[in-house]
Specification:
The complex is a heterodimer of chains A (124) and B (304). Chain A contains 4 helices and 4 strands; from the N terminus they run H-E-H-H-H-E-E-E. Chain A is 27% helix and 20% strand. Chain A has a single domain, classed as N-terminal domain of TfIIb. Chain B has 9 helices and 8 strands. In chain B, strands 1, 2, 3, 4, 5, 6, 7 and 8 form an 8-stranded mixed sheet that branches. In chain B, strand 5, helix 6 and strand 6 form a beta-alpha-beta unit. The chains are: A alpha+beta (124), B alpha/beta (304). The structure holds S-adenosylmethionine (SAM). Chain A: This is Multifunctional methyltransferase subunit TRM112-like protein.
Chain lengths: 124, 304
């Protein structure tokens, strides 16, 4: 699971949970692999993201890797920034670990890169 | 709870059926409109591109695939459009398979997968530019929940498209043969019910969507969609011809006896064959369609 996907997951499916976002991450296996840099794609993607949640998540797994926490107004023309953003949202992948509901502490296991967000009957 | 039963039903069905589908059908688990001389693979891909066309998917958009199977459509639409696709599926076996196949195809930078229920999706509201469901919403006990969730997760101005399984207006519930066909399809394909077109349209509108288009794509298929399940004699189609099915069945029985095929394979295979036959019969009678296309829009001004 990439941070791009983490950025849209919520635990608000749990009964009583209001926001459930962003989920905490306890990663036990992180893989960084090279992905072709496509500046147009990243430029389009950035405004669709909760930027603070991206930075918070990246930092919590030790992969902020120099990414600025504030979006500069001219980020679209800042190649260095776009490359760092590309790295953090596309190249860092959580293979094993847990996602954690910020309100209840309920853990959602990540197995083989796939977060399991299914709840038991009595949790919904 | 009825809801959970329908999830279980789908899960049990797909745990057993996935390998058979991949073997006999490929990586996309749906039907397609067919034209003369068109290959099956081409028809399947075209059916998926139609979704991309109706949704007007652009590069870099965020797109949700509700009930993504092993990800055949998601990979195909992602490489076609260069959009970022999230596949949601309740079935563990399929979703693991989806990821493996996506890695192998080298499109994991465009497709990611989340295990979850599309009737109660673990995804943020107003997140996706576009969303679609291909022959998947039929598994929901309450179709309205699928539309409610699609609506919630779409951004204002976002589009949703679905190929729905429906009993057409030719279906007459007082006709015993029609009733039998419907029940056989439900049983053979692990479904809680099959919706009428009216139920589908109600789910669209009652959840706030603006209906843009409906079309029973069966009427746009000069070669019947179910002909892929009827006897043909090319080698590639062999597995789904009656003789091929029977031989597969016998072969599986042998493998199961000596312990190579998982026990229950034969039973699943028989169920699938029966499911296939009931679909053909429902299609021939004109009372059933697996491709009632719905295109709908969430009102509002598009945002980023
Ligand atoms: C006929 S298959 C179609 C798969 C895929 N759309 C395709 O065309 O290849 C239906 C899919 O819906 C999934 N499904 C059924 N109920 C679901 C639910 N409640 N939540 C998420 N996925 C579900 C099944 O696991 C299966 O992958």
């Amino acid at each position: 699971m990439k941070l791009l996907t983490h950025n849209m997951l919520t635990s608000s499916i749990i009964k009583g949970v209001k926001k459930g976002f962003p989920l905490g991450i306890a990663a036990t296996d992180i893989k960084v692999s090279e992905v072709d840099f496509n500046p147009d794609f990243i430029k389009k993607m950035i405004p669709k993201l909760e930027w603070s949640a991206i930075c918070e998540a990246a930092e919590s797994i030790g992969h902020l890797d120099g990414l600025p926490k504030e979006l500069a107004p001219d980020y679209e023309t800042d190649e260095d920034f776009l490359k760092k953003a590309h790295h953090v949202i596309m190249e860092v992948e959580i293979k094993e670990g847990d996602l954690i509901c910020p309100e209840t502490g309920r853990k959602f296991p990540i197995k083989n890169g796939i977060p399991n967000m299914l709840l038991k009957e009595d949790e919904v | 709870m009825r809801q959970d039963n329908s999830s279980d039903l789908a899960n049990q069905y797909y745990d057993l059926a996935t390998d058979f589908f991949e073997y006999g059908w490929g990586e996309s688990f749906h039907f397609a409109t067919m034209h003369k001389g068109e290959s099956f693979e081409h028809a399947i891909a075209k059916h998926e591109y139609r979704i991309a066309l109706k949704l007007r998917i652009e590069p870099g958009e965020k797109v949700l695939d509700m009930g993504c199977g092993v990800g055949g459509p998601a990979r195909n639409i992602a490489t076609f459009t260069e959009a970022e696709i999230t596949g949601l599926n309740i079935n563990d076996y399929q979703i693991q398979r989806a990821r493996e196949l996506t890695k192998a195809a080298g499109v994991d930078h465009l497709c990611e997968f989340v295990k979850g229920d599309f009737c109660k999706a673990p995804l943020e509201s107003e997140t996706f530019d576009k969303a679609y469901a291909i022959e998947a919403s039929c598994h929901a006990a309450d179709l309205s929940k699928v539309y409610r969730e699609a609506y919630r997760m779409l951004k204002p101005g976002g589009l949703f498209a679905s190929y729905e399984w429906v009993m057409t207006d030719k279906y007459d519930p007082t006709n015993p043969y029609h009733k039998q066909l419907k029940e056989e399809i439900m049983l053979g394909d692990g479904l809680p019910d099959i919706n009428s077109i009216e139920t589908v349209l109600h789910a669209v509108k009652s959840n706030g969507f603006e209906l843009l288009e409906t079309a029973d794509m069966v009427e746009h298929s000069p070669v019947p969609w179910y002909s892929v399940m009827q006897p043909r004699w090319t080698l590639a189609d062999f597995k789904i011809t009656p003789l091929g099915r029977w031989l597969t069945h016998v072969a599986l029985m042998g493998l199961e006896l000596v312990g190579f095929a998982p026990s229950g394979s034969v039973k699943v295979h028989r169920t699938l064959c029966k499911g296939a036959d009931s679909l053909v019969n429902g299609g021939k009678e004109g009372v059933f369609s697996p491709m009632f296309l719905v295109v709908a829009r969430k009102p509002g001004k598009p945002t980023q």
